[in-house]
Amino acid sequence: MLHLFHLEYILTKLLNAASEVSDINMTVGHPMQVESGGELIPVFFQPEIRALTAYQTEALALSLLRGDRHLINTLMDTGSCDLAFNLENKARFRVNIFTQQGRYSIVMRKLENYIRSIEDLGLPNTFLNMAKEKNGIILVTGATGTGKTTTLAAILDEINSSQAVHVVTLEDPVEFIHTPKMSTFNQRELGTDFRNFSEGLRSALRQAPKVILVGEMRDRETVEMALSAAETGHLVFSTLHTVDAGTTVNRIIGLFDHDEEKLIRVRLADTLRWVVSQRLLPKIGGGRVAALEVMGSTLLIKDIITNGEQPDKTFYGAIESMRPLGFQTFDQHILDLFSSKQINEDTAKTFSSKKNVMNRGIDNLKALAGEAVYELDSLTLEPPEEEEIPVLPPAGHPAGQPGAPAPAPGQAQGQGQAQAPQGGYSQQQYQQSGANRG
∠ CA(222), CA(169), CA(70), 5° rounding? Predict the structure, then answer.
């Protein structure tokens, strides 16, 4: 176990090793690494450490755990644990310590020192409407590291700035500290303040909140409690690891038994207000930009949730057709990013949901800009084939009579073999008849 001074020295050096460090990675057999712009960069110390040993990563892990019995027991029982670590006056981290092949690995996600607003993040005005909702469920989905927590923090900060309400958060771990503005925040951490999300959500209903943040909907019981909270007039925010809005709805329904499906569909249709899905795309010139899919609640969306998708009624088609209401598919937003020169063509195609839609959209944008849509520089036209003109026999010649065969191509009169007489006999028949006459 390292002294806190040494741990802070190591983390400070890692943070200063590159610009815009987002993650720190410590894995046995590799040097210490930082992630910047989506790529891992090795960082070397003096004396040089080319590859971390199992002892070194275990010492680092124990230093981060700081003797917390609950975290140590969780790590021993489940093979991983989450915690928050504060590097004083420099950075906060969300830390995950886990075992792999009997050895410890550490991944530390750097958190912002301050909460960025909806305007700072460049989010659409639709997110301001989300902060004004009075009840229901709002979900932010996406893969790990796509900025779900940052987006939720911005929405809660908008509530904090505009409404005098009680907000209870259930997090694993607490990442952003909300300082009091108009709202009152009680931020609870998994393992320290409650045992699991469903239990924490059940107790939160007795704490008179107007807004509840559930760090993640991990199981059926948590979803059941969130639906109940939304139905009783609470506004519930949470996250899921799903790729888009349609998959999010299907994932929630899939947590329940088949005989419960119809009831859950009705309850979800009544309580679901917004689904935001996120992907981080590499920007031209470095850095990353968020692509968003946004789906709200309309009569058509409720009908699809209640009765399931049909060939003529899909979540994608419904979102695509309702852009005036603030909805947008990933493909529509990615095309906007491509049009504004924030991402290149390859990135747009790689991260699109429907390749044919993206290809058609890019071609249309190129055509409007006067750019070549197809590369035709290497194509050439073949020259026309020369037609052979037959030589016509002179007037009065037997070959010129009706029914006589035409001379062979390129064969002039009087050349080659004898001509067949009129009447249409073949050359062989003509020669045979002459032999008989002889």
Answer: 75
